[in-house]
From TrEMBL, chain A:
Coiled-coil residue spans: 627-668
Molecular function via GO: phosphorelay sensor kinase activity; transmembrane transporter activity
Xref: InterPro entries: HATPase_C_sf, HATPase_dom, His_kinase_dom, HisK_dim/P_dom, HisK_dim/P_sf, Na/Glc_symporter_sf, Na/solute_symporter, Sensor_HK_Regulatory
Keyword set, alphabetical order: Coiled coil, Kinase, Membrane, Phosphoprotein, Transferase, Transmembrane, Transmembrane helix, Two-component regulatory system
A GO term from the CC aspect: membrane
Location within or outside the cell: Membrane
Name of the featured protein: histidine kinase
Transmembrane segments: 6-29, 41-64, 70-88, 116-135, 162-179, 191-217, 243-266, 278-299, 311-334, 341-361, 381-398, 410-431, 437-456, 463-486, 498-517
The UniProt record lists the keyword Amino-acid biosynthesis: no
TrEMBL record, chain B:
Protein name: Uncharacterized protein
Residue intervals passing through the bilayer: 28-46, 58-77
Domain of life of the organism encoding this protein: Bacteria
Organism (species): Marivita hallyeonensis
Keyword tags: Membrane, Transmembrane, Transmembrane helix
Amino acid sequence: MTTLNILVAVCGAYVLFLFAVAFAADRIALQGHKAWLRSPLIYTLSLSIYCTAWTFYGAVGSAARNGFEYLTIYLGPTLVMVSWWWLLRKLIRIGRTQKITSIADLISSRYGKSSLLAAGVTILAVIGTTPYIALQLQSVTLSFSVFAAEAHDRTPERLESFALWLSLGLALFTVLFGTRNLDAKERHDGVVMAIAVEAVVKLVALLSVGIFVVWGVSGGVSEALSRIDASEFGQWQTDRSRWAGLIFLSAAAFLCLPRTFQVLVVENDDESHLRTASWAFPLYLGLMSLFVVPIAVVGLDLMPDGSNPDLFVLTIPLALGENGLAMLSFLGGFSSATSMVIVAAIALSTMVSNHIVMPIWLRVSSTGASVSGDVRNAVLMARRISIVAVVMLGYLYYRMSSGGEALATIGLVAFCGLAQVLPAMLGGMFWRGATWLGAFAGLTAGFGTWLYTLYLPSFGVGTVLPVSVVENGLFGLAWLRPYALFGIEGLDPLMHSVLWSIAFNVLAFLTVSLVTFPSPIERLQAAQFVNIFEHSGSKRRWSGGVAQTEDLMVMAQRILGAPEAQALFSAHARKQGVRGDLPDPTPDFLEVLERELGSSVGAATAHAMVGQITGGMAVSVEDLMAVADETAQMLEYSAELKEKSEELSRTALELRNANQKLTRLSIQKDAFLSQISHELRTPMTSIRAFSEILRDTDEMGPEDQSRYASIIHDEAQRLTRLLDDLLDLSVIENGQVNLNLRDGLLKDALDRAVSSAAIGEDGAQLEIQRDALKEDISLFTDLDRLSQVFINLIANARKYCDADAPRLVIRVMQETDRVVIDFQDNGSGISAEAADMIFEKFARVSDQKAGGAGLGLAICRQVMTRLGGSVDFIPTKSGTTFRVVLPYRLAMAAQ
Amino acid sequence: MSEPADRPKPSPVFHEKRTYRQRRLMDAARLAPILALLLWLLPLIWPQSGDARVSSAAALIYIFAVWAGVIVLTFGLSRALGSRMEDDPGSDP
């Protein structure tokens, strides 16, 4: 009774110690001192989750029954760890890059995020793990019963209540430390630390018992070895198919068991820890299995016949009175059992909540996942309920199987069931051609075969499968007998099932994969998984929540430009009523953002980018960022280029125009020069000719003399007039003329012009019609210049009017802000082509009436421009009309 | 418009001696599990009947000796490959 009480006390203290360790580790992790918690040593020790109570106690039992076969259970994982370089490194990299949370998540993620596959693997895992949990409960209660028997207190009620309390305690521990935080990466510092401590305890316990047996009982290594040779399995004897098959099975299980996957991949914090674990974990396994055979041999020697070899680890020290060692051994077994249950519950609850509960909850709940806090609480609640459910399921299984022999073999049965995931997993990691349908077909075929040939018969013939089916096959078909498919008998049932289930699995997986075509997302994921080292850096992580929005912000800034993106984000933050500038990534906001981005980079890219940051893991974010950066740069660059080229072409056009103008000016200058030399030359020629005649002709009458002299005089006058005109034009054009502004009447200017120009030198008469009343307008302007213009116009009319009775009408019209004076004659008018030319220098309408140099109208125009008015040719039906416009402003200024 | 710095460069046909050695180390790391498996499958061809049967003690020593060898080999390889793990993907064809 004392022993039992002490045992309960020690057990309680140990559990409290574990709680404290887990709590302290969580606290330390919260304070950010993760380096110490996440050392390669802790990682290696946490891998020992593979060694459950079943291996702690059962290995000795197995050795006592089947000799060396127990070693295979350790050799398989050792081989896997040795394959770290090509297998585990890739698996862990995939797990980290794709944010894998469980083995079901891995399979689902690889095959196009299929929720069906995830749910299938989850169900498989639950079916395979529940008996295993029951096994742990059984082993602990069994070991407890040993002490109870010592104390002569072996009541089944107490044992069952002990199992129940144990289950509840484990569930509580797991809920407390397993669902504390809801990180995207499922890491549990407290739990991992507790497991590491338990790993040390179970190793120390087993080694202590082993050392005690070898040196304390047998008396040394050589004596122990000779004792082994002398025992009933002194010679090498093992079932060959089981030796090879179990190595494969345990290797597969090490990769596929939810709990080992959890610590190996999900809880991994640093890839480099694998380096240490690659040799340290084989060492751990080697030490765990080193003393198993000596213990078994000594147990068979010492213990009475019929005692349970599964409990030799406990019963040998007890029988030899080593109570302390027995206590340590009990704690080792207790540690193995509890750590397994805790991690299995965490792994399973993650799978169940993520792949079964949450999809259903999201579908059922009408609001959807629009409120982030909602989902978070729902996930945590789902996890807690799942943990309790999983542990209680194990307890129920234990109660129903009533701790019978069936449980002892269930470990390997579960291994075989979970090994069905292996083809889809390895195929997904190394073969891009593996498809969703292939994986589904393989899993279904393998799972079905395992169910029929191993799992259902494992409950005992006649319980689930009727005796007739086992003996005669399904539907009476002999080749469908569960232990002898296709009539092949004589195989060990376990190996029979492993062989056929894996064979069907691989066959279906490969065949269906070969004939089906993957969806785009599957192909993308396939490339990501298979070429993981080309797609990922080792330190890359995105966390959810506000950080997501920040990432979105960074991306949006790169694409939309900083001010635009900030405006967009803060506008939505205001709309959502969120403080600060970062809105929650709600579907509405994401839709808007996606549209905004879509306008810059295209809808598909925008969708991919937003999906990427907010959850989808199809393409690595950095890749997309790089693409976005490049695209933005290119957009900017091409916009710059476009602007520059536009500028260039504008400049070129201006240059071309300037060049044209220069060319025109040059032509004009040439024309002007030749014109002027011609104009100067004509009178000079006649002056020279007549002056020569006067000089050289001796006998000349005075009449002739006077005629020639007057010609010379006329020509000289013409020349002077021409030069005056040229000078005048040049002065006016250069703006050097000083206007002599004064008050005066328009009438006076017109009078002076008419009197000086109406009658030509040849006496040609021009009839002029005027309205004296209307001309009575006072002006403030340069009246002399104005008269010059009028004279020119009147003289032109006199010279060029070809009517029989030439007549000029001068009309004055007073408008609101200007005075308009029209000069209209009754001649034949000027052609349209000529009208363009008449204001140019030296332009003359016709050569035959060459009276002047053709500078008159050019001068008129220059003068009028200087006076702030204009002179234009007005096309009319009959005759020629020139219109002089004088701004009223100047006219008003006179009053 | 510069090239992204992390774009994978085409790997050269021949490597420097140091790189070459590293690659053979990776090959060794890949082959190690095969060697271990072969050695541990060797008991399959041990005679199971007659006088030539292997004694249990010898079998035990053999298996644990292989185990120790595997641990030492993996330890050496992991140390040698350690520096390659962070900076190089190491997945050459």
